[in-house]
């Protein structure tokens, strides 16, 4: 029975692929992090999994920080290493999980970049609509309306087919991380923009190749890179100078819902977060907004 870290890591990755149904992107991240961990173990002379100690795992995290990784990235790498150690215990390779009590590096929590409601409006309305709008304009406006209107990840939006929008009754089903399905209500503005694109824009782009909702000029599915370019072009037209990405609209969706009084667990469901802890970062943003308003408005601030 091979007990070197690389062999056990290979078995764990196979287990994740077959048993857990993780997305290709998530698996790629796991492979990168676990390869880095195994390489480090080799560099420090550990070639048998049973020889790894808690101090070794702690030293690995310290090494990542010395290499310049942010605390959040080092924390994610630790999560992957912990997963490997849990697997090694469950499969009987070792008797003790030496990584269980290793703490992630502390660091200031990064608050996601968001736009104000007025800035989101400027971003979307910078794209022409009506009779003068081109097929690409109608597509781009529908894309931005759906990103902000649903809070979905760009990969989820680009995976939509025409059938997902036809007769959707104001509800869209998304297949998120880990193949988890969730339903998200869609507002009237996003539905209207999508309808205009389906009726007037998409037929001009469609070359009979695909049922994907969003198409490029050649009639193929729109890529993530093209979606980013659409956002950056719209931001320039709206004279917004922030570095705006599809995730900026997702963050803005969550923040604006919480500022409007939505329950954090409802927002968790809409975003498809497996834990409410992930969603609670947005409550820090709204709290900061409250402090800013108080500081500028209260006579004794």
Chart the SSEs and their pairings:
Blueprint (H helix, E strand, L loop, with lengths): L4 H16 L3 H20 L10 H13 L4 H20 L26 H9 L9 H16 L3 H5 L3 H4 L5 E5 L5 E5 L2 H18 L18 H14 L8 H14 L4 H8 L4 H4 L1 H17 L4
Antiparallel strand pairs: 1-2
Helix pairs in contact: 1-2, 2-4, 3-4, 5-6, 6-9, 6-11, 11-14
How would you briefly describe this protein structure?
With 301 residues, the protein is mostly helical.
The CATH topology of the largest domain comes to hpI Integrase, Chain A
Name the poorly predicted regions: none
Number of helices: 14
Strands side by side in the biggest sheet: 1-2
CATH top-level class of the largest domain: Mainly Alpha
Mean pLDDT: 86
Q: Tell me the series of helices and strands, N- to C-terminal.
A: HHHHHHHHEEHHHHHH
What's the architecture of the largest domain in CATH terms? Orthogonal Bundle
Helix content: 55-70%
**Count of individual beta strands:** 2
**CATH homologous superfamily label of the largest domain:** Intergrase catalytic core
Q: How far from one another are the termini?
A: 67 Å
Overall structural class, as computed from helix and strand content, comes to mainly alpha
Radius of gyration: 23 Å
Number of domains: 2
Shape: elongated
Sheet having the most strands: 2 strands, antiparallel
Percentage of residues in strands: under 5%
